[in-house]
Amino acid sequence: MADNTLAQPEPLTETVWHISDPVFEADEFKPEHKIWPWCGHRNFAYDLVHWFKPIRIAELGVHWGTSFFAWAQAIKDGNLPTQLIGVDTFKGEEHAGFYGEEVYSTVTDIVERRFTKQHIVLHRSLFDEALDHVENESCDIIHIDGLHTYEAVKHDFETWLPKLREHGVMLFHDTAESSGYGSADFWKELLSEYPGFAFEHSWGLGVLFPKGDRALAAIKQQNLADKIQLYTFKALFEAKDIANKEKAELLIKRMDAINSQTEMIRQRNATIEQIRSDLAAARIMCEERYNIIQNQSEHIANLKTRADNLDTHLAEANKAIASHTERIQSIEKDTQSLTAAKQQLETQLNNERAKTATLHSETEQLKSTISEHERAITDARQQLTIATKDLAHREERLKELNKHFETITLDLEALKLRAQHIESTHNTHQQQIDALDDSLSRGFFRKSIKGKPPT
């Protein structure tokens, strides 16, 4: 049996497609959504819901909910009555891996915290087991993202196709050849049989229209090629931006480490300078004492012994100075290496920032181009509306002229009938006149023969 009875309106495919910058609230509880494989398609999914305004969405394969909460966010922000169905065992499989209760509890917790007012239904079951809970031809969007083998995806498509409404949309994840999954091979077969298109980034997303391409035609009228390029570029930019931020954090940590080592080296250099200063003072003191010993002959023997001891200490001090000098040279080499690494990291960071700025600039240019196209489309639609109104007025005038023509035609037919009647009457009268003339002619002839003049 179905979950409930929903309205069955036609999908809205004549509205203008808007490019959004949504905030996905689920990321607050699961920040990994921003970097997991499906993240690059969230902006497209969000805008698709706002444009298509589906009555029901079914997702086969929820896992942590990267795509699931993209649908939910679009429904919430658009204040739509859409029902969102999620089907998953929440136990995992050989491609996604196997896991425990933490996944299901995380998904349900996010729903309870952020999407309590949305019509969300979770079926914790196999895909086939959920078929009886969804009516045939009741889903506007079906997203297949379960096991990615050829056989599994084909089975999911064939069993859930009856649930799709006419002119509905089916989405398939992991359709890019680089994914290495059988789902990519099956997608090629589908695309050779049904209309659709695909994104190649984020492991690939196939968008199929197996029960009529009215929605596809409507999207094409709104510059589909530009939108594919924009969503691809935007996803790559966001991924690069996240990577750059991670690199920047790593560089900051490395810089902190380098600065810490630099401070340690500075402190060691200060200690070495202090040792050098102390040794220099000791050397001066030893030389002064040695001179005093040389000038005092009466204590020569004792002083010589002390001088020998001082020489021994001085030799040891010289050895210590040499050892510290070697350590200083080693530290200086380490400092130079760290300084070079710091400069290299700074150069790399500057390069990444320049690339990010370039990507941002290109994104703004694409947005500007799309805005111009959208304005042109709006102007064209306004002109079309004016032309449609004028055409309706002309058609109304034509109807009036047709009615007038029909009236004239009827009048003409009446005139023809009157003319025919007059002609018939005229012919009758002419026949009578001819007969009378003939009669008169005969009477005159008879009177002429009798010798009587005609009267």
Strand order, sheet with most strands: 5-2-1-6-7-9-8
* Structural class category: alpha/beta
**Would you identify the regions where 5 or more consecutive residues have pLDDT less than 50?**
8-13
> How many β-strand stretches?
9
Distance between the termini: 116 Å
Arithmetic mean pLDDT = 83
Alpha-carbon Rg, integer: 48 Å
Number of helices: 8
Overall shape? elongated
Order of helices and strands: HEHEEEHEEHEHEEHHH
Helix content: 55-70%
Strand share of the residues?
5-15%
The biggest beta sheet is recorded as: 7 strands, mixed
Write up what this structure looks like:
It is a single chain. The protein has 455 residues and is of the alpha/beta class. Helices cover 63% and strands 9% of the residues. The protein has a seven-stranded mixed sheet, with helices on both faces. A two-stranded antiparallel ribbon has the order 3-4. It is elongated, with a radius of gyration of 48 Å. The termini are far apart.
Itemize the secondary structure elements and their pairings.
Layout: H1 42-52, E1 56-60, H2 68-77, E2 83-87, E3 92-93, E4 97-98, H3 101-114, E5 119-123, E6 139-144, H4 150-160, E7 164-173, H5 182-193, E8 196-199, E9 205-208, H6 214-220, H7 224-295, H8 300-449
Parallel strand pairs: 1-2, 1-6, 2-5, 6-7
Antiparallel strand pairs: 3-4, 7-9, 8-9
Features:
455 residues; alpha/beta; 7-stranded mixed beta sheet; 8 helices; 9 strands
